[in-house]
Amino acid sequence: MTDTHARTDTKTYSPTDIERRWREKWEASDLYRTEEDAGKPKHYALTMLPYPSGDLHVGHWYAMTPSDTHARFMRMNGHRVFFPIGFDAFGLPAENAAIKRNIHPRDWTYSNIENMRGQLRQMGAMFDLDAEVVTCDPEYYRWNQWFFIEFFKRGLAYRKQAPVDWCPKDNTTLAREQVVGPDRVCERCGTPVVKKNLWQWLFRITDYADELLDFSKLDWPERVETLQRNWIGRSEGAQISFPVLGYGDLEVFTTRPDTLFGATFFVMSPEHPAVNEITTAEQRSAVEAYRERAGRMTEIDRTDNTREKTGVFTGAYATNPANGKEIPIYIADYVLMGYGTGAIMAVPGQDERDWLFAEKYDLPIVRTVKPPEDFDGKAYTGDGPAINSDFLDGLGVEEAKEKMVAHLESRNSGGATVTYRLRDWLISRQRYWGTPIPMIHCKECGTVPVPESDLPVLLPEDAEFTPTGESPLKLREDFWRVSCPECGGEAERETDTMDTFMDSSWYQYRYLSPRYDAAPFDPERGRKWLPVDLYTGGVEHAVMHLLYTRFFTKVMRDIGLVDFDEPMDKLFNQGIILGPDGNRMSKSRGNVVNPQDYVDRYGSDALRCYLMFIGPWNEGGPWDGGGIGGVSRWLRRAASLATDAEGSSAEADPSELGRRTNRLVKKVTEDLEAFRFNTAIAAMMEYVNYLLAIKGGVGKGEWNGAVQTFALLLAPIAPHHAEELWAEVGTDESVHLQGWPGWDEAETLAEKITLIVQVNGKLRDRIEAPSDIEEDAAKELALASEKVAVHTNGKTLRKAIYVPGRLVNLVVG
Ligand code: ANZ
Ligand code: ZN
Questions:
Q1: Going by CA atoms, what residue is nearest to atom 26 of ligand 1?
Q2: What pTM was estimated for this model as a whole?
Q3: Is the CB of 404 under 6 A from ligand 1?
Q4: Which fold has domain 40-153+210-219+506-623?
Q5: Among all ligands shown, which has an atom nearest to the Cα of 346?
């Protein structure tokens, strides 16, 4: 290996030359082809796949290079490691860019991918490039379609007409999570969304709500679990029927069935479908005016507790099933159609919103839980004995709930139920650049799936993709006009495409065998590698992507494709790199920093190390390109360890060298295990300073051993520089094929020395201490000595002087 290798000395040091040279060698020798040795424990390391927006930016480097370091660390620690990468290539930005530049979304996407492939190579990461997946390739999205049909066959994909959030600018429906902020704007373009009724395809993720709440098989950050738990929003309570004269029953969802005797009025969401029917002639115009106003408001405003409560009487009454009383039915915007049943029993005595509403409209308030003596608030939401509640009187809240539910059940007036905030996953998009939904609508046969042998349903290449509000594929008659696969009659193809979250819900499986054509992935490869051991990526994906991929895995298990329940065992969220404007760095915000300038000037290793050095990986922080120079100088110094350039020739203590080396190995090992890249690098910097200071002062064998160990530790962090160093001091085989060094715990401990302790200049004791004891610790140790205490008791310590390695002098008076 040393033959083609030019010596590095500080004068001719060129990081980019070194890096290019090694990358060529690695590629020629296929160094990063995934090792399949079944005798080694497997480690599937997955980093979130990038969107091909054009160029890799510093945020990508921040996500990927520490992941690479960890994957390399695992490899050197005896694992066979699978570390793939791909492109999440469908989606709106391609269409927007295409419209802006008059270029086809496909061309834009694939040319970006080509560009980014080159940039990924420059990173010097150990990606297995043979495993690459591009989600807009027909070989990939064909399996999206296959999954869709599997879901449909199992009743997990269905169509319904539903009001959807619609972005008038992007002309598309949005999933709930793509509507953001208090003004409910489109996540992408910031336009306020409106409601629109459309036939939509949905996935029944709510069938898995309870299972998705079980996190016991996951080693995931607490924060992600909490976000998912809140997103799913499970509420236990009861459904209760309230008879309405001349209409039938209206259902409410309540978490407090114990308070039923205190339900003095009834409130429906203005959008509730029964409102029209129950409203009396006198109240109709007022009801309609209110509905219209509420429809224009945002959900956030409507649920804002500080806002004054408003509503309108419908003229109708419902019967409280507990006491037979007729209670008035109102509509009010604080009741939402999308939760529970869209109607509530209002209990002002125990619910604050209901209290405010009752006060305003002069409705009766009956407490059904006795507040404590000193309670001087309005609604009382705490525990206490039931009052004014007939057979419940005296019971605590929990007991009263149970008794009321049993009572309602026995009279067919309701029962226990569970409600979730989680909605079914809206899959349909009225856009071009996505996976065509593989369904056919036939007048005779209804909606039928495309036969598997006809997959993939190809996305037509020359469609008009300028958004019109309808699916662009509707304009392609040759696309949608088909014959029914069942009866052969005239039929129409579905023209919606799939939400791109579909693509990223199962891509980790496709990586295993991207060209396999008998199933989404080769089951034999699956047995060798699944599930993912470690997933790294941003916390912004906590509720959408990470919930969807869990859902997918559970369905795949039920289909029989996998035999486990969760897609990735461990999750680590890196922090966010902020752009120069203080916002998260992203192409769509236009605040990206191009890593290329830094790579050209300092090399990839310097950028990698700098990003890992700036702070704890999970914290992220603002980008400051100024600091990279220092890291680059350190790498240059590190590379010079192997050259013959001068150093101090003063005799150095070989046991000190051994101790430092053992400590470094221990520290770097423990830090890399825990993703503490910054402190690992800091320790390595200190070590290089030390080595350079003693260079020439220890024997050649000891010196070489130390530099070898250092090169091994450097390998996952700065792979090119480590290889360069190893070529000088190591073996002919790549540093990346070496095992991780171990350490000797005993060797990490400092030697004992004897410290003299003086009090006011007089020798009072001799104490044992580690040779590298710090000043404060030495003084403390001195003060703790009993022989010393005799001379300091009752006196004030004025000063303490520490002469390193020799003595402590305590000045008292
Ligand atoms: C009567 C009651 C009495 C309630 C009481 C609460 C306290 P969570 O915990 O979030 O599930 N509610 C039900 N559906 C609603 C809707 N569509 N829009 C607005 N509010 C709705 O909240 C459940 C409680 O929120 C339900 O229990 C209901 O008010 C209200 F002392 O019923 B409760
Ligand atoms: Zn048919």
A1: 254
A2: 0.86
A3: no
A4: Rossmann fold (3.40.50)
A5: 1
